[in-house]
Amino acid sequence: QTVVTQEPSLTVSPGGTVTLTCASSIGPVTSAYYTNWLQQKPGQAPRPLIYSTNDKYSWTPARFSGSLLGVRAALTLSGVQPEDEAEYFCMLYYSGAQPHWVFGGGTKLTVL
Amino acid sequence: QVRVQESGPGLVRPSGTLSLTCTVSGDSISNDIWWTWVRQPPGKGLEWIGEIHHRKGTFYTPTLRSRVTLTVDKYTNQFSLNLNSVTAADTAVYYCVKGGDWRFGPWGQGTLVTVSS
User: Fold this and answer.
1) Contact A57/B103, CB-based, under 8 Å?
2) Which residue, of A22, A24, A80, B117, has the fewest CB within 10 Å?
3) pLDDT band at A97 (very low <50, low <70, confident <90, very high)
4) Helix, strand, or coil here: A33?
């Protein structure tokens, strides 16, 4: 069974920069995984931020960016705001005879 | 503006079948879109359940493939989830999502389904 791994928790100061990563148990994450990143705050539905590794939605703040970092996908927040405190989930696409998507376990980001 | 909204029973008995419907407004269920279900057990992470395209078929997560069925109804512009032989582990908030072009959104607000006797 494929496992997608994220840092369980990270802490960042307001105005700082933080990078969240997303790894696949079967090998390096590439653009073929079409990485998605979503933000979820307590009691709310997830809000998509990034798709296809580094594409943004019209509502995605400029301080959020997606990339590939070594063998992982990454979400970087530059100039963190207090309202960025949330859980962040990555999502990877696995192709093949039975294509499917797999979520990472999520990263709880604390702005302190 | 596209909107999706889940509906269905909030309580299901163990060994029974969980059935949910997602109503789509602002878009057609027959467009080139993968209509998707995601769930989230209380206090836990997200799980992709599966997706359906009106013409291209369905795909499911391997862990639920033997128990889940997705369908679309072009006349009511809805898509549905059926999950059989449920246990307490299937208790979760279930979300329907518009997918396609490698992106996911909008999301429904989610509906909590509890499996309990």
Assistant:
1) yes
2) B117
3) confident
4) helix
Chain B residues near residue A36 by CB distance under 8 angstroms = 102-104
Measured CA to CA, the distance from residue B58 to residue B61 in angstroms comes to 10
User: Are A48 and B107 in contact (CB < 8 Å)?
Assistant: yes
Is the pLDDT reported for residue A96 higher than 90?
no
In terms of phi and psi (left: phi > 0; alpha: psi -120 to 50; beta: otherwise), the region of A96 is left
Cis amide prior to B106 (ω within 30 degrees): yes
Q: Determine the Cα–Cα distance for residues B36 and B104; give it in Å rounded to an integer.
A: 8
pLDDT reported for residue A90: 98
Residue B60 confidence (pLDDT): 97
What mean pLDDT do residues B50-66 have? 96
Contact A66, A35 (CB under 8 A): yes
Strands A107-111 and A9-12: parallel
Cβ-defined contact of B45 to A89 (cutoff 8 Å):
yes
Q: d(Cα B61, Cα B77) in Å, to the nearest integer?
A: 24
CA B22/CA B40 separation, integer angstroms: 16
Identify the helix (H) or strand (E) that includes residue B59. Answer: strand B57-60
The pair of structure tokens assigned to A107 is 């990263």
